[in-house]
Amino acid sequence: MAKTDLDPDDWDDFRQHAHRLLDICIDRLSNADQHPWQPVPDSLQDRYAIRGQGSDLAQVVDRMAADVLPYHTGNTHPRFFGWVHGTGLASGLLSEMVAATMNSNCGGRDHGAIYMERAVIDWTRQVMGFPETSDGILVTGTSQATVIALATARLRAVGSFVRETGNGTHQFVAYAGSGVHNATRKALELLGIGHSNLRCIPDGSAGMDLDHLRREIDKDLAEGNLPFAIIGTAGSVDTGTFDDLNALADISSQYNLWLHVDGAFGAWTRLADDPWKSLSDGIGRADSLACDFHKWMYVPYDCGMVLVRDADELRATFAARPSYLAPLDHGLAGGGNWYCDNGIDLSRGNRALKVWTALEHYGPDRLGAAISDNCRLVAHMGDQISQRPKMALLRPIISNVCVFTADETLTVQQQTELNQDIAQTLQNKGIAVFSTTIVDGITCLRAAIVNHRSDANDIKIALDAVAEIAG
Ligand SMILES: *Cc1c(COP(=O)(O)O)cnc(C)c1O
What we know:
Blueprint: H1 11-30, H2 44-48, H3 57-68, H4 91-102, H5 112-128, E1 135-139, H6 142-158, H7 161-165, E2 172-177, H8 182-190, E3 198-201, H9 210-222, E4 226-233, H10 245-255, E5 258-262, E6 288-292, E7 304-308, H11 311-318, H12 352-361, H13 364-387, E8 392-393, E9 401-405, H14 412-428, E10 435-439, E11 442-448, H15 456-470
Parallel strand pairs: 2-3, 2-4, 4-5, 5-6
Antiparallel strand pairs: 1-7, 6-7, 8-9, 9-11, 10-11
Helix pairs in contact: 1-3, 4-12, 5-12, 6-8, 6-11, 13-15, 14-15
């Protein structure tokens, strides 16, 4: 019977083209400073249209070099400061190559990638100060991790019947600081709880106002609602603030509520020097934690993690073994860690390898030093902004996030227009990428540096360019 062979006819030919592409990729990455984000040309849509005719490998490699590589997000460039985008690591080139070669399915069964994921979870558990009873799973990012964490919290509050009959008549309520990331709202929407049942607690002197939090919980209890979770933030997306996690852990145990911590980037201050490390003190007391390797651990997209203090609660929320997934005593269907029991996905790629490669190659100390460097650099940026005429910080710098306006002498509306114009112009010219957010009603410039390629000269170039447009 004829067989359609999808492997190369000539592996030596494949090898040549693969080596050529690898060289192109290494050139690209070793010259990251030459490659800022650039606007996508109108012709790209046509160039990407599926022709569906098949083409030889030489052509595919040429197209990847000419049509694909140039149109990246820009976050490999040293003056990319926007949103919270990790910059990637050269080690990712190697780990992704091996991961693609193995093509492991990490939903379960007994093979190496499963044990590697266990090692990565275990290492993170220890860094974060979680007990040995914990377990977790690598996921796309903190958004998915939050869904898994809050689903587990919900099950603790009402029992496993929630898997059978849903939320019933319970009026679940959760609490978070007003700077909480939208991922928490989305998770509550997906769980059928609805984001209007997230009480947003205003900020006090350090993170959310704790008296206000207690009052809100008492009020909900008096009204017959079902408070089930507090979401603490370790590193808020807009301004980089941290809730007092020890205080939140005390309140959570007082009211018997689940404490989830969104530590998407800020959890990694555990690897930094003080004063930044102490910002996340108490993180190990949480019931669950979400964090991202693709942000401040610099590993390539995508890779986040959820850690849950009590592995039994996590599995009670997600485990299911229909007949086609039944375990066997040994063989491939053996093994004790089936990650499909810890989360949403059944088929899963190998995310652990890129983390493992980074940890084994650079070592946690060097990664932690890069994190501290980022915090120092943002502090320096804040000093520079304060020293320049007209420019002003809109919030004190706490960790790696800086929000500022180009000209504080203008009206709110004028500042908004100017800052928006500056952000777009610097992006379009390939000078620097700031994102924008709104602080005190002003659309401001925002830098969140999780970039191991940035240095003080990059800050100078970017701020000079801001000042030039502001005039
Ligand atoms: C980025 C971020 C998220 C969302 O994480 P993803 O990995 O993008 O899904 C949640 N919370 C905070 C504080 C973030 O910075």
